[in-house]
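Model the whole thing, not chain by chain.
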Amino acid sequence: MITAAMVWEWVIKSVIICLAMTIGFAYVTLYERKVLARIQVRVGPNRAGPWGSLQPLADAVKLIFKEELTPATADKKIFFIAPIITVLPMLVITAVIPWGESVTLGSKTFNLYLTDSNIATLYLMAVTSISVYGITLAGWSSNNKYALMGGLRSTAQMISYELALGLSFVGPIMLAGSMSILDIVHAQSKIWFVFFQPAGFLLFFVASLAEVNRAPFDMPEAEQELTAGYHAEYSGMKFALFFMAEYGKMIAVSMIGASLFLGGFLSPVGFLSNIPVIGFLFGNGPHWLLLKVAAWLFVMIWIRATWPRIRYDRLMALGWKIMFPIGLLNVVITAIVIVLVGG
Amino acid sequence: MSLGLIFMYSALALVVVVSGIGLITSRNAIYAALFLVLNFVTVALLYIALGAPFIALAQVTVYAGSIMVLFLFVIMLLGAEQLPIAEPLRGQRVLGILLAVAFLAEMVLFVLLRGAPTVAGQAVSPDFSTPTTIGMLLFERYLLPFEMTAGVLLAATVGAIFMTRQPRPDRKGALPAMPEESKE
């Protein structure tokens, strides 16, 4: 039975998730700029606040006060809602990712997840597949040939890599015998799935880079060919929403990857959790998920700093002729091994 | 049924109907496609309300997330946003209205004339919509239809690849004669 207390708990958790994604987005931009600067032997933003820690706030203030332009020939309605459609999936996608087991405050126990659904991975697929609309519509409604090309490219790219992404989910699902992310995380309490599923892990990693349009797959916004791609005509807060969606999706795929392959919130050094006072740092909890997400984001930024963009036809060939067959093969081999070994 | 439930189902039904009407009345193909997406997503919400989240999310992933994205892609690629004002099929409006009236009459007759259900509705177990149950049903009880559907889809895929095949030049470097393009 649904009680008012449960509804309040859901509302508060949802607000926390949305806030975490927005604040996370702000600081991932700073993280990226700092890491890129270090890789290029620069200092990076260091004026606003200590170590540049108030830089995201300064950026936000700047973007809010910028003038917003709408092209005269644009389709006004769709031009307006496209950034909103782009941001929504990124805000809701992490709803099924558990942050931890549960905490007890006073006499009440709170689960550290919004929902533990038996179709959680399908939910992830559904939200990912919806998230392409915003970009496509933004490109079309701008009535600009470069923006349209960017939108079309990203549609083709996301459809192609969604297959590999979906197939890479199947490995952990079969190993855990469940589509719930909480069950998948618990099934990794002895060995992380990255060691059982190296091919699946690589597939997920490459496909997720393509899915969030990051280098070396940042084809939709290839500056040299397409000015800025699908958001060429956007300015001010509308542009900020696209920016937010891109970085929020980076956090989301890092959380999904960490939960599916790297043990999620489980601690790799759980045997140390009996140490007094500081033992909780070595136990399971959200801080381990945060650490894994930070490491994952670092690798994504590292790749952006060091790899050239791959050519568009190569990108499609990689998706259809290499990643898709490997994904199918991985599913078949995993299934046969599970049947032979007996789970 | 409680008042809240009636309100929720009515609201969802209203969105479904209005987006359906929007789909057939908008003269811009992009808007029509977006109305259809809204329709699919709202129907998925109805599935969730009926306790079948697996079907709901499969509907969103397949219809809204893949098929309609491809539709939008093709519309944008061909620049076919503006639908023609003149209708290519004459008399389809009259026929449509006639069929709609017939369908409405059928529904009214059905509601008026139906008696008590002859077979009592079976209670479904709470796990009827879990992925495990659906998978078991698909691969045990309905294996033949499932595999036949797979065969049909495979044939369609092979056909699509065959149609986009590039003609290979022969040894002298001349392209073979292309099959005559079908004229509309």
